[in-house]
Predict the 3D structure of the following.
Amino acid sequence: MSPLLEVHDLRSGYAGSTVLDGVDLSLTAGSALGLLGRNGAGKSTLIMTLMGLASTTSGTVTLDGAPLPTRPHRITRTGVALVPQGRRIWPPLTVGEHLKLATRHAHAGIWTRKAVLGLLPRLAERLRQPAGSLSGGEQQMLAIARALQTNPRLVLLDEPSDGLAPAVIESIVDAIGRMRAEGVAVLLAEQNLDLAFSVCDEIAVLDRGVIAHHSDTAAFRADPEAAHRLPGVSRPSGTSMIRMPSRCLISTCFPGGTTPSGGVYGTVSPVIMCSRPLSCRTCAQSHPGGRAKTSRSRTACSHGVADASPAALKCTT
C-alpha cells in the first residue's frame, strides 16, 4: 500500500532555532504510529510542523503523493486534523457550536455529527453546555470530536492522555481504534507507553530532533532492555499496564513482571487489565474481568484493599 503521509529529511523549529534535524517517517491509511521520547525531544514540534504551526527550513512532506501546504487552514482542507496538547477548546462556546464550526470546511464522509456523538456519547448530553464548564476528560473528547467532524484522512494527536483518568484514556483507545477501522491514519505523540502500545502498529522514538529508533510495536515490546535504553522510554517502578485487548499483561506478554505462576504485573500507567481473572493476595477475592485500580504509590483491588506493592495482585492461572 502506498503511503498516505511521507516525511523526508524534515528540519524545523522556532525563532531561528532548529528542533527537528532530519526526520523521516511514513504512514499508510488506517495505520497508527506512536511517537515517543522525552520532553523536548521534538514530538510536539513535529506535530506542529505538519500542521503548519512551526517553521520548516528544509525537507519534504507529502500527503497522498502531493506536497502538503504550509498554511494551517489549507492543510486542514487536505484532510489533516489536529487534536492539540491541552485540548485548546474555546471556553465560552457550547459543545454544539464547536462541532458546527468544525464542519464549515469539512469533507464529505462518514463522520457526521450523529456518528461522532455515537462514538463519544457523553458529548451528546452536553451539546448546549459551554466547553469551559466540561471536565478535562470531556474537553479531550470534544477536541477529538472537533477533529473528526472535519472528516480527516490523517489525525495528529499530541499527548491526548495527559492528566486524564483511566476511564477517559480507555475512551481514547476506543476512539482511535474506530478511526483506524474507518481508514484514518493516526500519528500519536505520547508519554503514556501503554496507550501507544494499545493502538499503534509502529513505534518511533525521537531524540534531539531525529528518529533514534523505529520498529513495529511487537518488535519494540519484545526487546524491553533495548527499548529502555532509549531516551524517554524508561519507566517508573510500582505502576502497571493499561489494557491490551485480549492479552494478559503478565511477563509472558510484556516483560517486567515475573512468570505466570508468580503473577506479578509489569510496569507503567494507571490501570491493570487482564483477559483472565485476577486474585488479590490481600483480600483473597477474585475480580472477574481482571480489573484493578492502581497509582504510582500503591495498588488497590476493586474492593478498596490496598498494598504497597503491585505483588498484591496475581493472575489466577
In short: Residues 166-181 form the longest helix (16 residues). The chain has two domains: 5-228, 235-317.
